[in-house]
Amino acid sequence: MKHVKLYNAKEIKTTKGPIVIEGPVSTSQLSSLEFHEDLVAFRPPAQQHKALIEISTLPEGRIIIARDHNTIVGYVTYLYPDPLERWSKGKMEDLIELGAIEVIPKFRGASVGKNLLRVSMMDDAVEDYIIITTEYYWHWDLKGTGLNVWQYRKIMEKMMNAGGLEYYATDDPEICSHPANCLMARIGKRIRQDSIQQFDQLRLMNRFMY
């Protein structure tokens, strides 16, 4: 499958100043930018910056960033699912995962996350993919925001909805381990029916075991 990555950009105004949302960004651009020290949700900032650079080198890897001058203050990643997860078992070339989304506290509440997703979907190539995201409450910054799991879940759903992702039922044990966890997906306009059926089998594997 040919992985097309058409660059898009959008400037948004916030109370803390304007920032640029752009991508998919190249490996060289990612390497040349500073990575904000408050981007700590998944691993230490230097390690996460390195991880994003590695994702950008993958044929299917797509990184959309929020940039304040020369500093990355938010990002969203897209790549094939982890080989150890059920979502990779179908070896579907047209299924990619929104692996991580993060925005520094300074710019939260300014619709940066929503705009990261909107810019992601401006690329016509997304119509060739089923895009999934698995939301786990243990990745959420409940302490920093002061929100409970259900309030945070509502914010996450609204943000994903901005990118056209919707809730889908699944019997995945990790997602089912807590009622706030969820699977969300966006099915591209050019996805074939057999790929949709394969996706249904992946998300409801136990139903197809009998």
What's the SSE blueprint?
Blueprint: E1 8-12, E2 19-23, H1 27-32, E3 34-35, H2 45-56, E4 62-68, E5 71-79, E6 95-103, H3 112-120, E7 130-135, H4 142-145, H5 149-162, E8 166-168, H6 173-176, E9 182-187, H7 193-203
Parallel strand pairs: 3-5, 6-7
Antiparallel strand pairs: 1-2, 2-4, 4-5, 5-6, 7-9, 8-9
Can you describe what's shown?
This protein has 210 residues and is α+β, with helices and mostly antiparallel strands. The chain has one domain: 3-Layer(aba) Sandwich (Aminopeptidase). The protein has seven helices and nine strands, in the order E-E-H-E-H-E-E-E-H-E-H-H-E-H-E-H. Strands 1, 2, 3, 4, 5, 6, 7, 8 and 9 form a nine-stranded mixed beta sheet that branches. Helix 3 (112-120) links the parallel strand 6 (95-103) and strand 7. The radius of gyration is 17 Å and the shape is globular.
Which terms summarize this structure?
acyltransferase; nine-stranded mixed sheet; Aminopeptidase; transferase; alpha+beta; GNAT family N-acetyltransferase; EC 2.3.1.-; globular; 210 residues; 9 strands; 7 helices; AcuA
Q: Short summary of the structure?
A:
With 210 residues, the protein is of the alpha+beta class. It contains 7 helices and 9 strands.
Specify the number of helices. 7
Total strands: 9
Q: What is the global morphology? A: globular
Strand content: 15-25%
Do you know the CATH architecture? Answer: 3-Layer(aba) Sandwich
Assembly state: single chain
Largest sheet: 9 strands, mixed
Order of helices and strands: EEHEHEEEHEHHEHEH
Specify Rg, calculated over alpha carbons. Answer: 17 Å
